[in-house]
Amino acid sequence: MVFLEEENFPRGGRKVVNQTLKRGKQDDNLFFGKSPKVKKNKKAKPTEEVALTDETFHNSLKIHGTLSYKKLQDGMVILACIRHITDFSIEVELPGLTFGRVSVTNISDAFTKYLNKKLENNSGENEVGLKNIFKTGQFVIVKVLSIENTDKGKRVKCTMNPRDVNSERFHDSFKKTHVNMGMCRVNSRSWLRTIGQPLFCIVHKSETMNSVTTLRVSSKGQHLKIAIMDNIDALHNVIPGMQVELVIEKVLPAGIQGKFINDYFGYVDESHLHSVKSKDCKEGKVIKAVVLYVEPATKVTHLTLHDLGDVPDLSHNIGDTASAEVVIKGQKGLYLKLPTKEICFVSTRRLVDALSKNSNVDISNSIKTKFPVGSKHTCRILDYSSMSRVYICAVDQSTVKEKLFSSQDVKIGQLLTVVIDSIKSEGIIVTAGHIRGFVPNLHISNVTYSENLKKKFREGQKTNARVLNVLDDNILFTLKSGLVESENCLTAIDQVKRGDQYAGVVVQTKPSGVLVAYYGEIKGWLPKKNLVGIDNDRDFDPEQYFYRGQVINPWVLGVRGDNLVLTMKELSKLKRQEQIKIGQRFTGVVSKIHKDKVDVKLLEGKVVATIPVNHLSCVQSLCPVILKTYKAGNKISDLICINNKSQPPILSRREGLIFNKKNRIMKFSNVKQGTLLRCSYISNCKAGIYVLPLLADYSENILIKTKDVINKGQTFPQFTYHQSIVARVLKINQESKELRLTIKFSEVFDNNVETVTSFFSHYLTDIKYLRKFGYKNGWGLCQYQPGERVTCKIEQLGDEGGCLVTLPNDVKGLVAPRLCPGYVKPGQTIEGVFLSQDFNDDYVEVCLKQDICQKINKQQDGVIDASSLASCTAETILVKNDSILGVLKQESCRRQLVYIPLYLHENDINGSLSYYDKDKFRICICGKVGEYLIGMSKKLFLTLDKKKANSKKKKVLKTANKNVDEGNTNIGNGATNGTSQSDECDDFPVQNTELDVDESEEEYEEEITHISCEETSQNESEVSGSESDTEEPHIKTVSTNGTKRKANDNITFGDETVKKFATNDSITGPLPILPGVSKFFNPNVGVKDDLSSDEEEESVSVKKKKKMTPAERAELARQEEERISRIEKELADSTSSPKSAEQFDRLLLANPNSSELWTKYMSFHIAVVEFDKARSVAKRALESINLTLTEERFNIWVALLNLENMFGTKDSFEKTFEEAVRCNDSLQTYLKAIQILADANKFTEMEEKIKKVRSKHKQEPAMWLEVAKILYSNNKLKEARNMKEAALKSIQDRKTQLNLIVRFAILEFKYGEEEQGAAIFETILSSDPRKVTVWTTYVDQLVNKDRIDQARRVLERSVCQRLPVKSMKSLFLKFRMFEEKHGTPESVEMVKEKAKEYVVRVAEK
């Protein structure tokens, strides 16, 4: 092909004359010496000058071939076909089997703007993506931006942005019938096109006026097909995709050459003809062709005879083999016809590969000989050219017989032999057959990755690998021996069965577990609790045990969504473990004792279980001591399973003592709002603590948020692993099995004395057990009993009093300072009284002070006179961590020791030590465990009894009164009071706290026996009889787990029985205390007949009704008339508060646009826990209130948001919020929602809303200020100050910026730090002291914070500035008013003098 310069393109008839350059005589000999003789040439005959015309230039062109990477140049505009579409780019096919890539940012300006908008709004997935706009096989016009050389070959970057494609054209160059590619800007609601989508269009009309051209275009397919371009001003206005009429001038071996629009040369390559044998292509014939591109060097326009319709559906897939017949030999290869009449092409290079390697004959002749026209050959389809509409094939036997040809020929998990092609920093490139794959660094070896691992590989090395994943045409392999050698490959999630074991790779480790990856996209989660042997090891860190890239073989527990739940526990153990149910009771044999747990084997089976140390006793401080009492082989009874999902299962002796055989563990379906649940502490996090509730069919940990653990301002308590905690249910979702719990002491403690007694009785029971066990096993601590006299030897004196002694059995003893006389010396022997043991520190506690020893009876049997049980005086002997040991002072109490609890409940973290600040105090005897008396401060007793009575009154009132007074609930302001069950509710309505009892279960009635003393006189019997009127002898009690039980666990007190209180007894109803206590609190109660309440009710019901007299009937009629009159007045009074749904409906008929009335109506339903009715009222309100009353409607939306926030779910709140944004002002709704979430301490959700409103309304100063105010008010100072910086970056107006800075300074003064606010004001004034309003605002803020002196100094500085007279007048006026209010008459006069001086200075100027 001849390449000519621009001046060699004649467009007229000008002749170009060849001018021969005359060369002067030169001396070519560069060295010394004679020059050789030059033979004279004969004079050539002068040639005639040949004129280069259009015809001669046309004939001189040797046009052949189509586009190639060598011919590609920057700026070329080419017709292309879409080959592949991804989320971020489009791969296009150019003519000549060249390829380019169009980035998502090079589609169109409108589409780029659309994507940027989506990013700013933080939207998720785009509704419109590249795959929604384009499709494979679609024709587009692209412009070459750049051509780069890479390791993989040429990389061509293109654009299809109409602005770039048409950049070389002027506005007046668009003519009628021109085809152009534009950009769609139709309405977004149109279903025809997508905003920003490029499309072909034809110009129907073009009108040019001055510098503006108006086009009328059409993009209809039928218009594009018939449109033929017949005139253009210049060749650069030719746009690919235009249809022209080509006059054939010459039929070449490799194509057709001709002219279009008279003057422009066109060429159709053989690959762009309709068929390889086109009989219609004759010289002089006019055919229709489509412009592909214009070659820059020769200015030849390359055309195609294919239309711009979609690429036809293919009959063959890539990689298929088929028999094809040779049709014709082309310039670059052979064209063959498939059985489907489709054409395929085999290049000459691939034909050479099919020839014999030893052939020495001419290649061209060899090809003709082996592949004659009409012969059939088996070929493999390599690709399909959408531009040429032919298959690209190969006929060499190695390619045809190859089994691995494309990604479709391999399966995930398939074992292959691969050859290492190259080693890169990111991994290793391998080949298998005709496919190429990649091995990431993570999958090179079983061990942790390092660069040294690649040294054992070399290029050309063969190794075994498995297909890890296939993503489109990209194949990933693994070389890990743990995966390659394992035949059990998990490749599809539907093949998974519970209990199957598969090899996987650790891809991520967290403190909570391990993420494991399998073949394909399958992943599994291995939680920490499912790791072997670490269920009770809370310090175990999976991040230290596992490493990224490790091959493990876990078992499958189940499938959750698209992911697996894994375990490292053996399948056989899992099956045995499934036989154990939560709540099932066992007797176990100790197999091994650890520091923090006991392993036991269950007698009922071969299952091995564990008991955490804190589950050995109801009292946490005694758990380590009880652990010492066990050894291998010992039996432990009363064990109950609390978690059967862990390995090994977890048992509890603590819960087994509380839940007896008749008191069963509750199921999740029986849990109601207000139910008390026993829980075990598991761990803590930033959001709160995790607990394990004791439920029969539930074993998941529950997060209790910090706000439900402690009140604001309290110190967060320190919990220990599996510590006992009681929680109350605040909210429950039965469908998703979600619970919201609170463990606040005020929420779970019922103020019952019986609760305290029951809780403390467990402590004394374990103390008694330890003393008995220690005595039998020779513990020195347990060889003495409380009250026993012992001889002590003084070993050491304390610095602040007290001493250390040794008992006769060499046990160390400790004497408190107040129990030690001052005259003792080391080595001295003195008699004392044994008081108690400290099992944790292994010493006993003794009293040596004789006056106190005399107050303690030697015989501590707990027998006292019954009359002293109501109230008596006690003296403190010893204060311990859990209790106070005191002695009763009354003679009738026989100098018995009394044990006083310091903690009232499992959740009591503060204790009640403040009630025992004196040495002597009044107590009430509340119970007895064996010989141990239980007492409580009389003041505390009265306080609890009063709170309990008030609580019962509230419940009765809530049940009886179904009407709600106005103001009980103000949902519009986000607060609830009265009977609503909000997060801060202390009491629950009786109708919601009724516990369900399974009818199939046996009902147990509790029988309570009254206490009678050993030496009861006749008078005391009368006292006991008087109590029977106030307390029923048969009281049914309901336990917390929803089943009734019968009390049969009594302890003896002398010869009489005393109720031993259990934890479950404290949930409902008053239990009888000891005789005399009721009389103590009710001294006016007289002696009555022993008549049960049932008999009283029966006697009342059988009484005869007396006949009414006329006067009584008249009085009854009058009262009825007054009642009716009162009701009529209430109905007529519109100002009275409605107390029923009917009254609300009646008022709303008269005033349907009142948001206040609708809100009260919602509050009415919320107060009685009818949330669905409250929502329906809100919907009615939005339908009734006039659309023009936006404020009233917005109030209803706020009320609805508050309702969902407090009583709904997160999803319901989000759904309501989105609807509110659509129906109201977006900014106003966002700000109100942020305020609601902040008030509810839901800061995570609040931050999400802040992030969205910042992107939506970043130009609104009010948004920045309101959000900052909310952050400031919630003590989030850092975030609030960041808002100021962000606001100044978003808003560019200087005046608005100044106002924002001032407002932020005011917020600092009001909610933040005063120094920070003052610093902001000082910064403003230092840069621009002319702002009078800033001076006055600064002073006002200082005055509000009572910084008078600092405000005065600021005013003094202000009046010293050189400002306009008007500004100075305002400042002096402000100064004078300030001094008049906060100063003295002298200071006022001083200001006036300064003002006069300023006036004089101004007048002189």
From TrEMBL:
Is DNA-binding given among the entry's keywords?
no
Pinpoint the S1 motif domain residues: 75-161, 413-480, 499-569
Sorted alphabetically, which InterPro entries does this protein's record hold?
HAT, NA-bd_OB-fold, Rrp5, Rrp5_S1_rpt_hs1_sc1, S1_domain, Suf, TPR-like_helical_dom_sf
Question: Recorded GO terms, molecular function?
Answer: RNA binding
Q: Which stretches are tagged as biased composition: Basic and acidic residues?
A: 1109-1122
A Gene Ontology annotation in the biological process aspect, one of them, is:
rRNA processing
This protein's record includes keyword Nuclease: no
Spell out the Low complexity composition-biased ranges: 958-979
**Where are the annotated segments for Disordered?**
955-989, 1009-1048, 1089-1122
GO CC terms of this entry: small-subunit processome
Q: Which UniProt keywords apply?
A: Nucleus, Repeat, rRNA processing
State the CDD domains in the record: S1_Rrp5_repeat_hs1_sc1
Cell location: Nucleus, Nucleolus
| One Pfam family of this chain | Suf
Q: What PROSITE patterns does this protein map onto?
A: S1 (PS50126)
Q: Which PANTHER family match?
A: PROGRAMMED CELL DEATH PROTEIN 11 PRE-RRNA PROCESSING PROTEIN RRP5 (PTHR23270), PROTEIN RRP5 HOMOLOG (PTHR23270:SF10)
Its recorded name reads S1 motif domain-containing protein
The species this protein belongs to is Aromia moschata
